[in-house]
Amino acid sequence: MALQNDRYTYRVTWSDDDNEYVGLCAEFPSLSWLAGNPETALKGMRKLVEDVLRDMQKEGETIPEPIACKKYSGKFMVRVPPHIHQKLTIQAAESGISLNRLVSSKLNA
Question: In the CATH scheme, what is the code of domain 5-68?
Answer without folding.
Answer: 3.30.160
